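pls design
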């Protein structure tokens, strides 16, 4: 049974800005799916719809066979901007993933049960930061902060993890570290994972399946072997321009990505 089902989903802003255009696909349990496409293609809107933060204008979204209505506690989110509390430790930030279970007041007062604390420590171990559990976020590197963000999502005990450009601001080594730990967590916990990326070479290294999005439509659905340079040209240029494979080190910018108009950042 598919974990995620998009059926004829459209999202329109301000009556004439089409962010998603009649999108249909399914994602099975445990798949690690990467969304590729130029800025403004609809990747972030798709993730926001999946997280219940944005309601589709038309169509339906089902998770585990149930219609998605509002935010789901079983969906963990990793953001491009990690949104950590800088004065808190890695452990404290990871533990904040239990907010949905404990409520705001109990969490603010630090009233967490032992099970939540164990889960937070296990999540930090999963992302390779157990030894840094007591380190304040303000003194951590960008890659470490993003890994804490992954740990926080894991503390939610999610069935699905969504990540919106989680390595966009990181250097290649840190980006690979973050993606390696995200893939490790997904594999060990059998999590269905959907993440958007701009770094094509890193995407090919870690993705099991790729959805190519352009102008709000899914125009490619396949694995790394199917993701030839012609297909990348179609995704980023809108037409094939020749070529057999994507060269090592290729970025979406080198494939001709341009800044497309987005509606308040929603469509990007």
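designed seq:
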């Amino acid at each position: 049974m598919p974990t995620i089902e998009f059926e004829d989903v459209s999202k329109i802003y301000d009556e004439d800005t089409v962010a998603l255009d009649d999108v249909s696909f399914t994602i099975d349990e445990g798949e690690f799916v990467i969304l590729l496409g130029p800025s403004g293609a609809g990747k972030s809107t798709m993730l926001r719809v999946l997280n219940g933060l944005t309601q589709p204008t038309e169509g339906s979204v089902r998770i585990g066979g149930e219609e998605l209505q509002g935010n789901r506690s079983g969906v963990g989110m990793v953001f491009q901007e990690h949104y950590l509390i800088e004065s808190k430790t890695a452990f404290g930030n990871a533990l904040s993933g239990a907010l949905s279970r404990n409520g705001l007041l109990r969490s603010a007062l630090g009233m967490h049960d032992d099970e939540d604390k164990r889960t937070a420590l296990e999540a930090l171990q999963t992302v390779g930061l157990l030894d840094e559990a007591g380190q304040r976020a303000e003194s951590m590197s960008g890659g470490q902060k993003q890994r804490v963000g992954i740990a926080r999502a894991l503390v939610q005990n999610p069935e699905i993890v969504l990540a919106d450009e989680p390595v966009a601001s990181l250097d290649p080594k840190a980006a690979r570290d973050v993606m390696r730990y995200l893939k490790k967590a997904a594999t060990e916990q059998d999590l269905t994972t959907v993440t958007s990326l701009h770094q094509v070479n890193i995407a090919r290294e870690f993705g099991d399946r790729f959805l190519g999005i352009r102008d709000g439509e899914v125009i490619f659905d396949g694995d790394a072997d199917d993701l030839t340079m012609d297909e990348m040209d179609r995704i980023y240029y809108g037409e094939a321009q020749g070529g057999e494979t994507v060269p090592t080190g290729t970025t979406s910018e080198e494939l001709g990505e341009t800044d497309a108009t987005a509606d308040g950042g929603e469509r990007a």
